[in-house]
Amino acid sequence: MARLRPYAAVCAIAAVLWAAIGHGFANYDALYALIWGRELAHGQAPQVDVQLAPTTHPLANLLGVVLSALPARTAEDVLVVIAYLALAAAGWLVFRLGRLWFGWAAGLLAAVVLLTREPVISYGVRAYVDVPYLVLVLGALLVEARRARAGAPVLALLALAGLVRPEAWLFSLAYLAYLRTGRRVRPSEVALAASAIVLWLGYDLVTSGDALRSLHDTRQGTRELGRDTGIAKVPVTLPRRVGEVLREPGLVGAVAGLALGWGLLRERMRLLVASGVLAVVAFAVLGAAGLPILTRYAFVVAALGAVLCGGGAFGWMAVTDGRWVWRWRLVGLVVIGLLIGFAPWQEHRLRSTARAISTQQRIRDDLYALLDERRLPSGRVGVANHRLVPLVALVTNRGPQSIVTPPAAGLRSFVGPATSKVARQFILDPHDPTKQVAGAPAGMREVARNASWVLYERG
Predict the structure, then answer these.
(1) For 63-92, what is each residue's pLDDT tens digit?
(2) Would you give the DSSP letter of residue 449?
């Protein structure tokens, strides 16, 4: 029964999150994973040569293969369920780590901090791979924290993480080096540490003929979208990205937890600090490789910061030196006071995000309804912006290369927004290089419409 307790806790947390938010959908990258998984399931090479295609993630694409047996919208619903479970699992793991290092109250506060941060919720309910990746990394950290030099279980979790994000390759290699300092490393452990690298490069080589295709495409997308990158920007950008997640009270609590914990609980802090340093190095490696340095890429650092924040508030419960207990309590009261003081603002941000996601989901449902109402003719389909490409491709069971933005020859149909408000709320992205929404090509007539979308066909 005790073995089922973590799973029951994760399901309960996911249910609470759904009751509070009640919305979710697959983001642009996740939709492409479903499309590419469907293509792989049919023995086809994934169509990655499309405008602003996202980075391929082998594990996400494998999940797409599994879900290809389901109708498109059912597959997307399954992704949303997984997204909520991943959010809940991240909260549960942060609680377990905080409890292990600082006590149950610190763990509970750490979980609350993480699961009330707007970027975590926003990316999480839209099924970004970064939250499941965070779960795998935190799971590996918990295994190691409970049993030093655990070896294969840690490396297995990191190998799965390494098929989602390449930073986990660094974690695996660093952990392998750490194992060598205390005992002989087994061949199976070396194989696990190298497996994600070999599998990802092999996947790219087999599907595209270029083992470094993901790296090249991500660099190109970074340039086209004008995203921050480069090692020189890491010292300024990383604190900003972590601050976007934790906000001011969380940062103050994390600094307090780090300073007091390192001074008074150093032995139990070593793994936490080493993990944080390695996560920072991994973030810097992204910049050095010319890859984007985004907020969601800092989730591991932010999650460890949430643990430290819990320690800053309640770490005194793990201190045996009575002279320092009351001092840490005073610091903890300040941290709790700041968190409570900023809570209304944080609630406002979460409500705004929930409303935006609700609106976007309604607009998506309108698009599905329009495409259900009238079957698109064969041939290439025009759409108002590249953001619509994976949606239309997935729901109409077409390849993404057949969904294009004008001007393009030979278009038989075109899907565009019914109002400028829909364009602003759903189609346009602040990182779009053009920020343009194309209109229907000349010679097309309106054949169907609803509150959000208009379908045109050639007359």
Answers:
(1) 999 999 999 999 999 999 999 999 999 999
(2) E
Residue with tokens 């993404």: 400
User: At residue 82, what are phi and psi to the nearest 5 degrees?
Assistant: -60, -40
CA distance 412 to 458: 6
Q: Which residues contact 7 (CB under 8 A, 6 or more apart)?
A: none
How does the average pLDDT of the chain come out, rounded? 92
Task: Kindly state the helix (H) or strand (E) to which residue 383 belongs, with its residue range.
Answer: strand 381-383
Give the least confident one: 155-164, 220-229, 280-289, 312-321.
220-229
Tokens representing 41 are 């399931």
Q: How far apart are CA 310 and CA 332, in angstroms?
A: 9
Tokens of 347: 């609630």
Query: Are the C-beta atoms of 316 and 266 separated by less than 8 Å?
Result: no
Inform me whether the pLDDT recorded for 392 exceeds 80: yes
Asked if residue 216 has pLDDT above 90, the reply is no
- SS3 assignment, position 196: helix
Q: 99-113 burial, b if ≥16 CB within 10 A, otherwise e?
A: bbbbbebbbbbbbbb
For the chain, the C-alpha Rg in angstroms (whole number) is: 23
Which pLDDT score, from 0 to 100, does residue 430 have? 59
More confident site: 50 or 150: 150
Contact 383, 437 (CB under 8 A): no
The pLDDT of residue 219 is 87
**In the block, residue with structure tokens 């939709």:** 31
Nearest CA-CA partner of 134 in 313, 351, 295, 6: 295
Give the per-residue pLDDT at 435. Answer: 62
Q: What are phi and psi of 415, to 5 degrees?
A: -115, 125
Q: For the packed helices 299-314 and 72-102, what is the interaxial angle rounded to 10 degrees?
A: 40
Contact of 68 with 37, CB cutoff 8 Å: yes
Residue 145 — pLDDT band, cuts 50, 70, 90? very high
Please list the helix, strand and coil fractions of the chain in percent, rounded to the nearest 5, in that order.
70, 5, 25
Rounded Cα–Cα distance for residues 16 and 34 (Å):
27
Rounded Cα distance between 83 and 128, Å, is: 8
pTM as predicted? 0.95
